[in-house]
């Protein structure tokens, strides 16, 4: 018995990782506004610290590996990691705890 061979019934979308991560960040905006409303502006401070340390850690690791950092930074995954970390931490977390978590998330993980 011989089976007929067919192509996949779908068309691959023209979506890359960078555009998908930007959609994730856009989807987090209402949650971020609600988080600031309920828990105060400490979330924004955590978000800024986490973003700075995630992007900095990604840049340092790419340079240590001898690669162009813009290739890794153009997919926005470090910023999504920073945003998720800021959501996971309490608003009154000290800055060094946020910075340590961000560096650990990017450099080690």
Description:
This protein has one domain (about 15-109). The chain contains five helices and no strands. The protein has helices at about 15-40, 40-65, 70-75, 75-90, 95-109. The chain is mainly α. Helix content is about 70%, strand content about 0%. The longest helix has 23 residues, at about 15-40.
Strand content: under 5%
Order of helices and strands: HHHHH
What Rg is obtained from the alpha carbons, in whole angstroms?
Answer: 19 Å
Helix content: over 70%
- Say how many strands there are: 0
Coarse morphology: extended
What is the domain total for the residues?
1
Terminal CA distance reads: 49 Å
Number of DSSP helical runs: 5
Could you provide a short overview of the structure?
71% of the residues lie in helices and 0% in strands. Helix 1 packs parallel to helix 4 (77-88), helix 2 runs antiparallel to helix 4 and helix 2 (42-64) packs parallel to helix 5.
Characteristic terms for this protein:
5 helices, 109 residues
List the topology elements.
Layout: H1 17-39, H2 42-64, H3 69-73, H4 77-88, H5 95-108
Helix pairs in contact: 1-4, 2-4, 2-5, 4-5
């Amino acid at each position: 018995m011989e089976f007929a061979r067919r192509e996949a019934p779908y068309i691959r979308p023209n979506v890359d990782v960078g555009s998908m991560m930007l959609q994730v960040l856009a989807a987090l905006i209402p949650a971020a506004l609600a988080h600031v409303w309920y828990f105060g502006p400490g979330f924004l401070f955590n978000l800024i610290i986490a973003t700075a340390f995630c992007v900095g850690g990604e840049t340092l690791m790419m340079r240590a590996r001898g690669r162009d950092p813009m290739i890794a930074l153009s997919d926005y995954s470090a910023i999504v990691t920073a945003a998720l970390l800021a959501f996971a931490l309490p608003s009154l977390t000290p800055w060094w705890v946020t910075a340590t978590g961000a560096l650990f998330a990017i450099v080690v993980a």
